[in-house]
């Protein structure tokens, strides 16, 4: 870890201005990923601006019936919040499928969105990595890529986003509220994370001096029919090889509304709302529908050797999640 | 050269006044921002009950309670805990005066080498504070952030179940 | 022998220290002049350090020194100075910071020393190292043509394969049933949770007290003195608690030499703790490929066995472990050929890791036996009974005891083996296929020379001292039990001191021989003390023991009483009160009784039964139930013994399903060098485990009759799980670990 300056932020404006005015300055929330990466010498901030004294710790109802989760609410507090677990069980399940209780107690909502990839080359400064050091190359494509992406990859990067929570937020259609020196704005969840393209070093559309203030959930949260399935190498405390968050509204056996996102397969939670409209909504809630949908959703998926198995695993996981969501509440 | 390096070469003192209580004892310290809570506890305060097993939040040996909530102290910057109350294994009970959870680990052989043990115990106490574990499967899942390489898991679960009044595990003593 | 303690459930005497944080491990000792050191690890697998720029590092406030091969203090020149007790005798152990040569990725290239840990860490990130890289090879599949046959032993007890017996090639050719398969096991990393660390405290008289993470204080002392030219009398090594080791601390690791070198040069106390990623550069279980051929009659009777084993090793030490031999040992077969080969690559030297060699060798043969059971339509237990050996087949010697049949029977009964469906894919639970499998396990139970001291104070407190270690195995408690038993003392009156080079010398703590070796020495030391106490007791005026001889009395409940009439006794207190007020101390050295053991071989055995659920879509495996039946001789502390086996089973689950160091061969570097990406089992992976100790009496193995349990719990588990997965899915996976991608 390098030496750095530490600043306790007393207000949003001041915090954003500090980071805007200091090259290499960063915000810190829970720090579970940032401190980890600093110890590996992957992140080397010149200053850290601690946001924890700011008032972004509330979960509150929005006028439109949605729910606002403050950026500093810990992952545990979100998962176990009574409103979240009743109205957005998909989010609770996804959060509790990730990391460990200790990490969830420390990690914040805003910080979870900003987690960086677990690609082993990104983490190891003895090897090249375009995400860590642009232009050095990507050894993962012909190397260790068992956990890496099959969708939305680029020549320069095949990293995956490691979050579970974000997969659920993607399926739920959350909105990220941010503020910075240039003012405040709302970013639809699908537009928050980006694909690697030619700039894998940039994970999100958030500017360096912008602060996430909250994540807003829409009015309905698939309370009746949702499932989060996480396939991993051990039964807890492991990152997803493939995960699927699926939410449905079903009436008389017909799908009325759907949200489906995948984790562990791309640089961002993988979702396609247009396909959900075309291939799920209005269709019967059955395996044929789910299969047709997964074929379209996963079209163009490409393996890189070690991760070829995800081409088989992802389809069955999508179908299982949709089936489980549709049958939620029924007696087995 | 990074800007971090520039900051480093400036001779200014970057240490930050930090006040915290550790297991009931009040400390007013000047802490360099890059000091982890774990290193402050182990080296600064010589409280070595909190263990370093990975230093990256991957093993749970460093688990302490911050205001009653279990966290990985290796991923906490000490300066970020100004005003907090930290409880380490030393604060739960001493060799001659063990807490219920500590005694249960002894009675159920919930360890072997003992290195992950303080973290396991702090984690188990934190889990009880949280109140979300009801079944044996819950316990196993919610203690999965504490790796025991000796493989004492069945006995750890038995020890925790005993404290929770859940009776014996199959195969437990 | 009276057994008021032996075989019962005894809580560990060091338990309160462990659960309260009072137990001190190597990195937890302090000195007022402490410096901190951090190692800079090399980035390439083979080549040379070209240049090292330490200017930026030395500007960190608190920086003291950066050591590298360019400015290191004097180190020994002769190779023999670096040969620790467990080193292959024909190798050239790596010398940290000795010269510019790089032998494996992650090799230490510099040592940063500073006033604080944080400063040393910051320095380590600022040391600029450039390399001249040479071509490297870390891929066993490409290096295989350079394989060398193992011809001779280069470590005590590690033997090359025995001579061929019979004609296995002809017998195989003639056999009605043939099986020929390759079995691949990966590099595994010990990963004890305690990081390797050394704290060197420089005393005022310039002697050193070194707290080292080690399985042998005497081995650490030997190496550091030889390598750095120190006198044994000036260096005391202590290691009272060891946070797991599993073999990785049998050989002193490089942090010992580096920390001591820095302390000597700077005349300050030094603490050096390695990082978790550096733990992947020390020692590992070697990657193996075993080609097995079994020939059998149609009823499963073995006619021919062949195991050609290949294992990876480093270029600087031809380390090897015994792998192929386990195939030929345990089953009756007149025609057997075993071959062991090593292949040298640009990797660090492998090392003993819990049941070294046996876990791979037994996994392969026990998987092959399951395949033979399928091929011949036999029940897997019946097949093993049919080929049951009453003699060690490799050495043609009798077993000192072998209650493996009882393990099969009692294990099968508890597991309800009869409920198993022989045809794969016939049982389901929800989306999961259910399968059951079994395997046998075996590990040796040797006795080594060891010494111990027993000191009985006038107040009746007994202190036991031995240089051995307790790495979590329960040594403190076992020695207290044996001592308490010998002198009729409650555990509260027994103090055990271990892990100190000033205590009587013990063998390396490994190989499951500590109870058998050190336990015998402790028992004999206590017996010598007892004889003296008896003399005092029988010399008392009006002593009821006046006409008794030592063999007529027993020591129970702090009394010396007549065996024939317990009402005739002298209390220990009374006996001691008649002494001269000085402690009674006896030091003994005990070793194997060759006369008694001649003609015998001793092993622990196990039968492991496993039930798995395999999700048919996802290929995820849950080991829902394991029964492990152990024949391990006499059980001293039932509680800790059971824990050893539970731990072994947990390791077996990891070995079967999770553990694997992943090397990028382009860089010749293990890439998943952390506990997030190198998976060991977590609590949620472990479900029901039952342990059975079958009754096994053995008065040949050693005077105690105990066989040691550190390794046997692991051996056989991976095969049982793999065989259960086959029973569930119909898929035979011959490459560990059995990750989900291999099952979908």
Name the chain pair whose interface involves the most residues: B-C, 71 and 70 residues
- What is the CATH class designation of the domain at 225-326 in chain A? Alpha Beta
- What percent of residues of chain A are in strands? 15-25%
Assess the beta-strand content of chain C as a share of residues.
25-35%
What is the H level of CATH, i.e. the homologous superfamily of the largest domain in chain C?
A: Aldehyde oxidase/xanthine dehydrogenase, molybdopterin binding domain
How helix-rich are the residues of chain A, as a percent range?
A: 25-40%
- By oligomeric state, this entry counts as heterotrimer
Helix content of chain C: 10-25%
Task: Please state the overall shape of chain C, judged from the principal axes of the Cα atoms.
Answer: globular
> What is the level-2 CATH architecture name of the largest domain in chain C?
2-Layer Sandwich
Known CATH architecture of the domain at 225-326 in chain A: 2-Layer Sandwich
| Termini gap of chain C | 56 Å
Low-confidence stretches of chain C: none
Number of helices of chain C: 17
Rg over C-alpha atoms of chain C, rounded to the nearest angstrom? 27 Å
Number of strands of chain A: 11
**Number of beta strands of chain C:** 32
**Largest sheet composition of chain A:** 5 strands, antiparallel
How is the topology of this model organized?
The complex is a heterotrimer of chains A (332), B (173) and C (744).
Chain A: E1 5-8, H1 12-21, E2 25-28, H2 34-39, E3 47-50, E4 59-61, E5 67-70, H3 75-80, H4 82-87, H5 89-96, H6 101-106, H7 109-113, H8 120-123, H9 165-172, E6 175-180, E7 183-188, H10 189-192, E8 211-217, E9 225-231, E10 242-251, E11 254-263, H11 273-280, H12 287-297, H13 309-326
Parallel strand pairs in A: 1-3, 2-3
Antiparallel strand pairs in A: 4-5, 5-8, 6-7, 6-8, 9-10, 10-11
Helix pairs in contact in A: 5-9, 11-12, 12-13
Chain B: H1 3-9, E1 16-22, E2 25-31, H2 37-44, E3 63-66, E4 69-72, E5 85-87, H3 89-92, H4 100-107, H5 117-130, H6 136-142, H7 153-163
Parallel strand pairs in B: 1-5
Antiparallel strand pairs in B: 1-2, 3-4, 3-5
Helix pairs in contact in B: 4-7
Chain C: H1 15-20, E1 35-41, E2 47-53, H2 55-58, E3 63-68, E4 101-102, E5 108-114, H3 117-126, E6 128-133, H4 140-143, E7 148-149, H5 168-174, E8 177-185, E9 197-202, E10 208-212, H6 217-228, E11 235-238, H7 254-266, E12 270-273, E13 288-296, E14 302-314, H8 325-329, E15 336-345, H9 358-376, H10 380-386, E16 391-392, E17 397-399, H11 404-415, E18 428-429, E19 432-444, E20 450-456, E21 462-465, H12 475-487, E22 494-497, H13 514-539, E23 553-556, E24 559-562, E25 569-571, H14 572-577, E26 584-590, H15 594-597, E27 600-601, E28 603-615, E29 621-631, H16 638-657, E30 663-664, E31 669-670, E32 688-693, H17 717-729
Parallel strand pairs in C: 1-12, 10-11, 14-15, 17-27, 21-22, 29-32
Antiparallel strand pairs in C: 1-5, 2-4, 2-6, 3-5, 7-15, 8-13, 9-10, 9-12, 13-14, 16-17, 18-19, 19-28, 20-21, 20-26, 23-24, 24-25, 28-29, 30-31
